[in-house]
What does this fold into?
Amino acid sequence: MLKYVNFDIVFQEIPDEVTLAVNISNCPNRCPGCHSPWLREDIGDLLTASAIDGMIGPYLGDITCVCFMGGDGDPGEVARIAAHVKDTYPKDEELDKPGIKTAWYSGCAELPKGFDLKYLDFVKLGPYIESLGGLKSPSTNQKLFRIVPVEDQSGPTQGKTEEEISPDGRYRMVRMAMPRNFLE
Ligand code: SF4
It folds into this structure.
């Protein structure tokens, strides 16, 4: 079960995407100097498929990505809602519809054991360390990855600084560099 506090349309969390960012509560992490301590509380409304549809509806055609900000308390549910987004708003080349991409901002250093990246296009990993700053800080420890099936060797290379293979061996995790104008 996941709960969300609010959502916003943002431009800098995922490069080149117009993103509907959903702030998820009940964060189980305890990063010293936490930038959003209210997100550690059990507050907000249930994040269901119909709730996410309600958020997307007014912005359909404008947003290109949905990003789950948090959700480490129930990663399986993050994957399930991401699957709903991908299934409900798919890419259709014949109709020239790009589909809605999905992203997950986790506060953990690694993917949960057995986590399936199938329905995610982007993942951010790494706890928040106040002295290093968030993803937009040049000194950050956090990493943003583009997720690409291993068989897809034509995947994104622009802005690539490094890549690794997911623990299940099924996906390339291509490190994304944050554009210079995004950096703090
Ligand atoms: S993951 Fe984010 S919300 Fe959770 S404790 Fe760390 S900084 Fe706070």
